[in-house]
Amino acid sequence: MVDERIARRERRRRQTRRRRLRAGGALLIAAAAIAPAVGALGGGGSSGNGGKTAHPDRRRGSNRIASKTSTADWRPHTGPVPILEYHVLGAAPADEPYPDLYVTRPVFHRQMNWLDEHGYEAVTLEQVEDAWYRGATLPPKPVVISFDDGYRPQFTYALPELRRHGWAGVLNLKAEGSDLYPSNVEAMIAAGWEIAAHTIHHLDLTELDAAQLKEEVAGSRAILRHDYGVPVKNFCYPAGRFDATVIAAVREAGYTGATTEVRGYADPAHPYELDRYEILGSGGLAGMVSDLRSGES
Ligand SMILES: [Zn+2]
């Protein structure tokens, strides 16, 4: 099944590769071969260029974001880190069954401004893991801002909003049937965003048989790596549903971390049960602030 999906994508993949090759440079050839191009940018270890060197596959040079390059105040960080979880940015339609999954754009704007004004800097989960497990550095008040499923406003609104602060987010992308065009996802990657897997069909993983589970967990990683040439190190459980069998499948598929919807700060001791704060429309700015403060030790 996954092989068929990959074959269907092959034409688009070749187009992407041609674009990358046209941009020139050996790094691009490596990127097209599913090298960890984004990983090479992250990890806080490549700070020598002062952000001036444009990576050749970052076609939109102005998208380069500050937080991908560590600055003087970044330090080793092995403690818990808050991860925020967003779905749709915008007003919920009148007939929407889950209106709380919509955070309006003015509220999101105020939430991001509040984080910035209070010293938070958004980083990717990969950057957090590099600090937790490999001695890399993080800003003094790191936060991960994650977006689930792949809704259009995550590209049209969240991408420019985060870029305004010099930040990158994490896109937990359904491998099939998201609202985002491949070019949207590529632009987010170019801006430093991390792409994490969120299965293929967004099913409750605790209800699948072994073959289906492997297909959704390992298959989604294969598709995203193939489509976008990025490492896809992390996984996000649909609707936060997981159990020991699901965790084993996630580990077996080669992911190094997975995010839940259990409220709290993500803890490096539990890489496959990383807590997140689901930000709901009804909570407003005060809800996000109270989430962050409730988890502070
Ligand atoms: Zn989801």
Characterize the structure shown.
The chain is an alpha/beta fold and 297 residues long. The protein has ten helices and twelve strands. It has helices at 2-23, 26-32, 37-41, 105-117, 125-134, 152-164, 182-190, 210-228, 244-252, 284-295, and strands at 75-76, 83-86, 88-89, 102-103, 120-122, 137-138, 141-149, 170-173, 194-197, 234-236, 257-259, 277-278. Strands 2, 5, 7, 8, 9 and 12 form a six-stranded parallel β-sheet that branches. β7, α6 (152-164) and β8 (170-173) form a beta-alpha-beta unit. The longest helix is centred in the N-terminal third of the chain and has 22 residues, at 2-23. The model is unreliable at 11-64 (pLDDT under 50). It binds zinc ion (ZN). Zinc ion binds next to β7.
Q: State the major sheet.
A: 6 strands, parallel
In percent, how helical is the residue content?
40-55%
Based on Cα principal axes, name the global outline. globular
Distinct small molecules bound, one entry per kind: zinc ion
Q: Kindly state the number of beta strands.
A: 12
Distance between the termini: 46 Å
Rg calc: 18 Å
What's the helix-strand series? HHHEEEEHEHEEHEHEHEHEEH
Mean pLDDT comes to 85
Question: Structural class from helices and strands?
Answer: alpha/beta
Low-pLDDT ranges:
11-64
Report the total helices. Answer: 10
Strand content range: 5-15%
